[in-house]
Amino acid sequence: MRSLINILDLSVADLDELIATANDIIENPKKYAEACHGKKLATLFYEPSTRTRLSFEAAMLELGGSVLGFSEATSSSAAKGESVADTAKVISGYADIIAMRHPLEGAPYVAARNASIPVINAGDGGHSHPTQTLTDLLTISREKGRLDHLTIGLCGDLKYGRTVHSLIEAMVRYEGVKFVLISPEELELPGYIKHEVLEKHGVAYTQTTELDAAMPELDILYMTRIQRERFPDPTEYERLKDSYILTPEKMERAKPDMAVLHPLPRVNEISVKVDDDPRACYFRQARYGKYIRMALILKLLGEHEQGLDIPEDLSGCFRDTLSCRNPRCITSTEQELTQYFRLVNPQEHVYRCLYCEAKEIFKTTNK
Ligand code: NCD
């Protein structure tokens, strides 16, 4: 493997290996202090971030490497109209590995196709956020001692919350996992994840708008922020922003060992009064993010150095015969990108864009 764009780029064995390395780093940090000596991480962040960017930077520094990059698009040549593809080619000459966050879905995939060094997706639009999922998996395994046989409540903005999408894709691969999807109707989980991920893997799930009623059965409660920046209509955000607030009273209904996770930042969906509850794991979770990113950097750099890059298999793809209609897809703005689609359901003419994974229904006459 060369880049990490989607959590499914990692097998369950890869996940086990990364978690084991992260645990070893936590136990024996000195062992890793020079592991990336002389190596550089470029953090290319076109969208705001605190934890993800700084934990990546801290991770590389603690491995003995160094970091360079930018933290907003306005301070890079993107402001002059440079494409992601060109930026990736240029940075390949300055650094050994890239972590990229971008508001457009599929941007890190474009970077990976054009860079000659590994690229890590640090969040692309509402699409996916695989390193947050690695953080979540390490947290769940440390807090619960296992990743299987868990009932996981996902609460808040399940429509635009990219962390939830990646977490579901990862967790369906473990036995006995059940989901309770808790959201306002307007912010339900996208249909493609329900049908193609949950139902395809035969994973049990229920949907509700009620957090209180769901509490007693949960082993994990994964709270999320309502994603204001992704709402086309700001009044809709105002109406939905306080849909759920976790309070000590609500925590009384939960199992004594339920773990509360949140990718952070929190706005007001968890009262600060919950922070002292031993079941509140979110600040520990943020700390674990650094260790799992250390493990990931080590793995990707190691594989790249050994020439273990796997060339992408584009056979069977439709090339430039269809175009993606998702306005948040990188293909909507970046000039001259080859459009790639895979046919995922021949009976119903359903195709999937390789960049943003949005599904499109094209009759043969459609372009
Ligand atoms: C998340 C993100 O950026 O998607 N934050 C993070 O990386 N820890 C969650 C969020 O912004 O709500």
Shape: globular
Number of strands: 13
* Terminal Cα span: 33 Å
* Number of helical elements: 11
Regions with pLDDT < 50 over 5+ consecutive residues?
A: none
Widest sheet: strand ordering:
7-6-5-8-9
Rg: 20 Å
Biggest sheet character:
5 strands, parallel
The unique ligands bound to this protein are: N-carbamoyl-L-aspartate
What's the average pLDDT?
A: 94
Q: What is the string of helix and strand elements?
A: HEHEHEHEHEHEHEHEHHEHEEEE
Helix percentage range: 25-40%
Oligomer: single chain
Class by helix and strand content? Answer: alpha/beta
Measured by DSSP, the beta-strand proportion falls in: 15-25%
Topology:
Elements: H1 12-27, E1 40-45, H2 51-62, E2 66-70, H3 84-91, E3 97-102, H4 107-114, E4 119-124, H5 130-144, E5 151-155, H6 162-171, E6 178-182, H7 191-199, E7 205-208, H8 211-214, E8 220-223, H9 234-240, H10 248-251, E9 259-261, H11 282-305, E10 318-319, E11 340-345, E12 350-353, E13 359-361
Parallel strand pairs: 1-2, 1-3, 3-4, 5-6, 5-8, 6-7, 8-9
Antiparallel strand pairs: 10-11, 11-12, 12-13
Helix pairs in contact: 1-5, 1-11, 2-11, 3-4, 5-6, 5-11
The structure holds N-carbamoyl-L-aspartate (NCD).
